[in-house]
Amino acid sequence: MDDHCVGAPGAFNGLCAMGVRDAGFEAAYVSGGATSVAAGVPDVGLLTLDHFTRVVREVVDGTRPTGGTGPALPVIADADTGFGEAEMARRTVIEYHRAGAAGLHIEDQVFPKRCGHLGGKTLIPFDHAVEKIQLAAQASRDCSNGDFIICARTDARSVEGLDASVKRAQAYVEAGATMIFPEGLESEEEFRVFAERMRPVNGVTGKREGPYLLANMTEFGKTPILPQQVFDRLGYHVVIYPVSMLRVAMGAVNRALASLKETGSVHRSLDEMLTRDELYAHVGYRPGVPWDFPAG
Q1: 42 φ/ψ sector (left φ>0, alpha ψ -120 to 50, else beta)
Q2: pLDDT (tens digit, 9 = 90+) per residue, 196-226?
Q3: Contact (Cβ atoms closer than 8 angstroms) between residue 74 and residue 65
């Protein structure tokens, strides 16, 4: 992450996390939007901290090497608005860390929050948002000596403009955030400007200095689809693809269901299915051989 931009596809369950691992990615992401709709509810803050923590743990375990012990991939997890006031932001950090996540992001919307690419969002007061980040950062120091990443997401671009998003992001860094997530930027130029203002060039070293930066590549929203290489060039450290795999999976499911309903057979869908052996390979299972649950 220090020397290149890392792609982190969204994994909405343990099996999807295994696919992320087997495809050779360096990190995975747990999306609040994907977690919510996978449970059959909209992304408006309806699920509990315990529900999110369970999914985080499944995804972390899913990224561990097949058939034994070993480190999981770094998993960054969406924590929505922190599941409550500032005290809950602290608890959320501790619970996500216990679940095995490498970090989380907390946003500055009021509850109930809205998808970052919808209109009608409202921000919590500036000092309230700063307080949440301060307590989250202190929790990281307490539970991980500061290794657990506190990423502050700001939705200010769509509410108050790009300058306001930079102002809030700078305050969140001062409050202890080590990564910044500017949500809802609307062009490559805005990503460039935001990165340059958050990571200015040091006049002595000639290098850019500042927090880690996270970019969101979600589909059908305010942000154009940009290649990971562009974000690497612009100075971003992580690109998340939060709902992409869920959308692809459910698109295939809906097509298969329509075909099954029409024909009374799964014959048309066979070529798009994982075979039995391929599915077993994902989970590291061989019939007749005891399966090794990842020990962590």
Answers
A1: beta
A2: 999 988 888 888 889 999 999 999 988 999 9
A3: no
Dihedral angle of Cα 258, 262, 266, 272, to the nearest 10 degrees: -40
Burial of 54 (0-12, 13-18, 19+ CB in 10 A): middle
Please check whether residue 71 lies inside any domain of the structure: yes
Full DSSP string of 87-155: HHHHHHHHHHHHHT-SEEEEE-BPSSP--TTSS---BPPHHHHHHHHHHHHHHHHHHHTT-SEEEEEE-
CA dihedral 280, 282, 286, 291 (to 10 degrees): -120
Residue 269 lies in a domain: no
| Catalytic (active-site) positions | 29, 43, 78, 80, 105, 107, 115, 153, 183, 216
Counting the structural domains of the chain, the total is: 1
Residue 117 lies in a domain: yes
d(CA 240, CA 245): 11
Q: What is the pLDDT of residues 159-187, one digit of tens each?
A: 999 999 999 999 999 999 999 999 999 99
